[in-house]
Specification:
This protein is mostly helical. The chain is built from 2 helices and no strands. The protein is 52% helix and 0% strand.
Length: 50
């Protein structure tokens, strides 16, 4: 039972982290339009140089 619980927790953790990673990348490309007036921390990570 403990093994099943650990596997379930790890699966949920990996699923959550992959969702966070997917939200910071774009399959089409990254739009680094600095003329929008957004602060640097609100721009995609590729625009921030990280």
């Amino acid at each position: 039972m403990k093994k099943l619980f650990k596997i379930s927790c790890m699966t949920l953790l990996i699923w959550a982290l992959s969702g966070c990673l997917a939200s910071t990348t774009s399959p089409v490309g990254v739009n680094c339009d600095f003329s929008q007036g957004k602060p640097l921390w609100e721009m995609p990570l590729d625009c921030q140089g990280r």
